[in-house]
Amino acid sequence: MRITLLEAELEKTKDLMMRTVAEAENGRKRALREREDVSKFAVSSFARDILSVADNLRRALDAIPEELQEQHPQIKNLTDGIGATERELLRCFEKNGIKKTDPLNERFDPHFHEVMFETPIPGKERGTIIQVIEPGYTLNGRILRPARVGIAKSIDQSTTGDTGGTVDTQA
User: Fold this and answer.
1) pLDDT, tens digit, 9 for 90 and up, residues 72-125
2) Do 153 and 113 sit in the same domain of this protein?
3) 7 pLDDT more than 80
4) Within this chain, do residues 38 and 48 fall inside the same structural domain, yes or no?
5) Are residues 66 and 112 in the same domain?
6) Arithmetic mean of pLDDT, 3-22
7) 116 and 72, same structural domain?
8) What CATH number does the domain containing 152 carry?
9) Which domain holds residue 130?
10) Model confidence over 32-69: pLDDT tens digits?
11) Which of 1, 18, 92, 131 has the lowest CB atom count within 10 Å?
């Protein structure tokens, strides 16, 4: 009888020890994951702030007409320099886990996109992104900034026979 009790107590102790070891290992893994996340995402505030630099470089390039560049070599050189700066900045982003997203013609997703306007577009499915106002960015797979977009909405039923409807733009 005494041996049976001792064996049962030994089994309980073994089980408790195994659970304790497993719990300690899980805690160690969780702490390691948290440390990795802290190092991966510690720069997110800085990264968010520097996105406006990338936006402004793109705006500067878009503002210089092609014909002006052709007529004036100095302006062409300036444009080339701005373009090189933009490419280098985007390379630095990629190297540090920041990826640019350009969702033109994709389906609207409130987790990745922010709707700025809706407009009826014949031949486009409701909720299709028809214009990217500002590209989105992710940092190591997490949203840093959603893409700001315009989407197609249904054309009025009275003119096309479409059943209409709207896209849920709430996350």
Assistant:
1) 999 999 999 999 999 999 999 999 999 999 999 999 999 999 999 999 999 889
2) yes
3) yes
4) no
5) no
6) 90
7) no
8) 2.30.22.10
9) 100-171
10) 888 877 777 778 889 999 999 999 999 999 999 999 99
11) 1
Cβ–Cβ under 8 Å, residues 76 and 70: yes
The two structure tokens encoding residue 49: 């702030």
**pTM score, whole prediction:** 0.67
Tokens of 89: 């900045």
Q: For the chain, what is the HEC assignment? A: CHHHHHHHHHHHHHHHHHHHHHHHHHHHHHHHHHHHHHHHHCCHHHHHHHHHHHHHHHHHHHHCCHHHHHHCHHHHHHHHHHHHHHHHHHHHHHHCCEEEECCCCCECCCCCEEEEEEEECCCCCCCEEEEEEECEEEECCEEEECEEEEEEECCCHHHHCCCCCCCCCCC
Place of tokens 């389906």: 107
Question: Please, are residues 72 and 114 in contact by the beta-carbon 8 Å criterion?
Answer: no
Do 107 and 168 lie in a common domain? yes
Structure tokens at 142: 């997490």
What's the total number of domains in the chain?
A: 3
Q: Is 114 exposed, middle or buried (0-12, 13-18, 19+ CB in 10 A)?
A: middle
